[in-house]
Design brief:
The chain has 181 residues and is an alpha+beta fold. Helix content is 25%, strand content 41%. It has a seven-stranded antiparallel beta sheet with strand order 1-7-6-5-4-3-2, with helices on one face. The protein is globular and about 45 Å long. The N and C termini lie far apart (45 Å).
Length: 181
């Protein structure tokens, strides 16, 4: 009998029409394989990214995804000095699937304030390197009357974008150092 990891989650295509959508993207001057490897090995993110508190797999799947618990700080700065005054802790639990052929990484938040959020990382080859695009789509928390408003005015632009933009920039820096073109 073999100890094979269970089959990957099928999270399907990203939904359309969610009230909150954030997009973070950049050209990474490194091969797609390097950036995809760094992005898909989420358990190593805290080694590369100071704003990540921890990443833990609760369950592994055959594609490298699974059920993953993540926690990061969203720093808030004071004045032009850029010194973090408050590091607001965040936490979420996600289903994660990794498509090595496309390549892409999909997440569906199943725990935390962002429960129900859908996330996709896409990697596109360019002559100068790799264009990486992260999309977050969400209807907002289930707060009667204000959930979508809270998502579009505060949670998405301040927290989701604040963490995703730092994650992408940090992983890009590592990728460019490891395999820069």
């Amino acid at each position: 009998m073999t100890n094979q990891a269970p089959a990957a989650f099928d999270l399907g295509a990203m939904p359309t029409g969610a009230p909150m959508q954030t997009v973070d993207e950049r050209l990474v001057r490194a091969p797609g394989e390097v950036m995809f490897r760094l992005a898909s090995r989420v358990e190593q993110w805290p080694e590369h990214l100071a704003h990540y508190r921890y990443v833990r797999f609760r369950e592994r799947k055959a594609d490298g995804g699974g059920v993953v618990e993540m926690s990061a700080h969203r720093p808030f700065h004071l004045g032009s000095a850029g010194v973090a005054v408050v590091n607001w802790p965040t936490w979420w639990l996600s289903l994660m699937s990794v498509d090595h052929s496309r390549p892409s990484i999909r997440f569906r938040h199943i725990g935390g304030i962002t429960k129900g959020m859908e996330v996709e990382w896409e990697f596109h080859r360019r002559p100068e390197g790799t264009h990486v695009r992260i999309v977050h789509a969400w209807d907002g928390p289930r707060w009667p009357g204000i959930g979508a408003l809270a998502a579009t005015l505060m949670i998405g632009p301040v927290f989701v974008h604040g963490i995703a933009s730092r994650t992408l920039a940090g992983l890009a820096k590592v990728a460019e150092r490891e395999g820069g073109s």
